[in-house]
Amino acid sequence: MTTTSNPVRTWGPAVAVVALIALVLTALAIFGGNTLPDRTGPPAEELAVEQTTLTPGTITLTVRNTGADPVRVGQVFVNDAYVDFSGGDTAIDRFGTEKLRLDYPWQAEQPYHISILTSTGAVIEHEIDAAVATPQADGGFFALMTLLGTYVGIIPVVLGMLFLPTLRRIGSRGVRVLLAVTVGLLAFLAIDATLEGFELAEEAGGAFGGPALVVLGALLAFLALTALDHRLSGGNAERTGLRLALLIAIGIGLHNLGEGLAIGSAYAVGELALGVTLVVGFAIHNTTEGLAIVSPLTQRRPSLVRLLGLGVIAGAPAILGALIGGMVTNTELSSFLLGIGVGAIAQVIVQLVPAVRDKAGRLLDPATVGGATAGLLAMYLTGLLVTA
Question: What pTM was computed for the model?
Answer without folding.
Answer: 0.72
